[in-house]
Amino acid sequence: MTLTAPATHARHSRATTSILARLVRDPRCWVGGAGVALVVVLALAGPALAPHDPQAFVGRVFADPAPGFPLGTDVLGRDVLSRLLVGGRLFLLQGLVAAVAGVTAGVVLGILLGILRGPAAAGLLFFNDSVMVIPQLLLVLLVVASFGAGAIALTAAVALAQVAYTARVAYAATQRVVTEDYYRAARALGMGHASLVVREVLPNVAGVVLVEFGVRLSICFVALASLSYLGFSSGEVDWGSMIHENQGGISLQPLAVVAPVLALAVFLLGMNLLRDAVGRALAARSAR
Question: Does CATH number 1.10.3720.10 belong to domain 11-286?
Answer without folding.
Answer: yes
